[in-house]
C-alpha cells in the first residue's frame, strides 16, 4: 500500500526541484533582453549624431560638385560644421 503521500508527493518534489531552475532561467532571459534593448537604444542614439554630421558633409560636397556654391563658400561651410 502506497499510503497517503504515494507517488504524487514525489513528483511534487521533482517539480519543485526543477521549478527554481526554470525561474532562474526566466529571470536571466528577462535581464538579457533588457540589456540588449538598452544597448540597442544607446547605439542608435550615439550613431544619430555621427550620421547627421556625415550627412551634412555629404550634402555640402554635393552642392559644391553641382556648382551651387563656390570653393570659398565650401571651405567656409566645411569649417563651420566642424
What is this entry, summarized?
Keywords: Membrane, Transmembrane, Transmembrane helix. The chain is mainly α and 82 residues long.
Please outline the helices and strands.
Blueprint: H1 6-66, H2 71-81
Helix pairs in contact: 1-2
Detailed description of the structure:
With 82 residues, the protein is mostly helical. It has one domain (6-81). Helix content is 88%, strand content 0%. The protein contains two helices and no strands. Helix 1 runs antiparallel to helix 2. The chain is rod-shaped and about 75 Å long. The model has no long low-confidence stretch (mean pLDDT 79). Pfam families: SHOCT (PF09851).
Q: Which terms summarize this structure?
A:
82 residues, rod-shaped, mainly alpha, transmembrane helix, SHOCT domain-containing protein, membrane
Number of helices: 2
Shape: rod-shaped
Strand content: under 5%
Number of domains: 1
Per DSSP E runs of 2 or more residues, the count of β-strands stands at: 0
Could you estimate the helical fraction of the residues in percent?
Answer: over 70%
**What is the CA–CA distance across the termini?**
87 Å
Following the backbone from N to C, one meets helices and strands in this order, namely HH
- On the 0 to 100 scale, the average pLDDT is 79
Largest sheet: none
Low-confidence stretches: none
Q: Which class of secondary structure composition applies to the elements?
A: mainly alpha
> In angstroms, what is the radius of gyration?
31 Å
